[in-house]
Amino acid sequence: MASDKSTVLSGMRVVDLTSVLLGPYCTQILGDLGADVVKVEPPEGDLLRWGGKPPRSKGMGPIFMNVNRNKRSICLDLKRDDAKEVLAKLVQQADVFIHNIRAAGIERLGFSYEEVVKLKHDIVYVHCAGYGRGGAYAGRQAYDDLVQAASGAATLLSRFDGNDDPRYLPSLIADKSTGLHAAYATLAAIIHRLRTGEGQFVEVPMMESFTSFVMLEHLFGATFDPPTGPIGYRRVLNPNRRPYKTKDGYLGIVPYSDSQWEEFFRLGGKPEVFKDPKFATFTERTKHIQELYALIEEVAASKTTQEWLDVLDKANIPAMKVTDLDDVLDDEHLNSVDFFRKMDHHSEGKYISMRHPIGFEKSPAKTERHPPGLGENGAEILMELGYSEDESSSLLKKQSS
């Protein structure tokens, strides 16, 4: 599975105490980039191991499989002193220590930043928290649903469709976007360490990370003081901004420049639309965006999906057919770039993995390890730390007893 070229984080070790989605997504990215990620799990394992229906083994659920490649797993019951001793030895050999345990909990275990830095003075210590230190919500539990609720994201759909009921966006978008924040934050701290020799404490708060993600566009009129308009980017909250029905399907259409808008309406048989002062400039189109998108809907129904794709592509107007979730695996582009890869797991058999999406010409990301079984690599990790085979076997038995 591995490439001959070295990856950018080759030689770096990450001790990973994260679970569920946010943290494991971050550490999978680090593993894809070459880091040796040691996933430290409690005897019951990461919660996501048990979601969904794996084909063969318990504890190898589908979402777990998607965020835990390129890792090694060891089970440690950190309530036990012998397990804490192992973790301390792992930290001493690590470059990064990352967890999503609440501050009070990790302190009780004896692995707060103040304690860990005594074990490794230049450690990059990353805490994926729910809410930032010193804030009103600091120390509270955080999950994707809760952060969507608290950040304003749960009211986006009601602003869009007029249904006053708050609703969660049907994706674990707070977890995933914060996982990306955690990945770049860890890489930035690694770069700082390479430049200065200094480690540091890095806090990645989910509430703040996701709120910044949501409000980049939706702060909108409230960006200025005093506000120049309402909160909420009207273009994307427009109920007419959606895939448009064609004669035989649906199409995403995004004319952007003045010339593209003019040409779109000409192709749709309504050249007079763009001559209307309400739509002739970007500023005026923004003011009347709801009316404009209603006209797109009317025009879209005049051709089949393929007819539109043919003429819009020729006119250099951005458009894409709507692909059902069930059909994404058959997408022509994704298959041509080998995005979905059929893999053969040592315990689960055939499965589909998504390759790392970023292309690095000199140091490509790669898959060296399948997602690990619970504690699968415990013995080899312990022996790397200097435990004998018998000591490793005895210690691991105690962790699961």
Report what the structure shows.
The chain has 401 residues and is α/β, with parallel strands linked by helices. It folds into two domains: 13-214 and 336-400, Crotonobetainyl-coa:carnitine coa-transferase, domain 1 (Rossmann fold, 3-Layer(aba) Sandwich), CATH 3.40.50; 244-321, formyl-coa transferase, domain 3 (2-Layer Sandwich). The protein is 40% helix and 13% strand. It has helices spanning 22-32, 62-67, 81-92, 103-109, 113-119, 144-151, 156-161, 173-196, 206-218, 234-237, 258-267, 282-287, 289-300, 305-314, 332-336, 378-384, 389-400; strands spanning 13-17, 36-41, 71-75, 96-99, 124-129, 200-205, 244-245, 250-253, 319-321, 340-345, 349-354. The strands form three sheets. It has a six-stranded parallel sheet, with helices on both faces. Strands 7-8-9 form a three-stranded antiparallel sheet, with helices on one face.
Model regions low in confidence, pLDDT < 50 over at least 5 residues: none
Structural class: alpha/beta
State the CATH topology of the largest domain: Rossmann fold
Query: Spatial order of the strands in the main sheet?
Result: 3-2-1-4-5-6
**How much helix, percentage-wise, in residues?**
25-40%
Give the tags:
2 domains; alpha/beta; three-stranded antiparallel sheet; formyl-coa transferase, domain 3
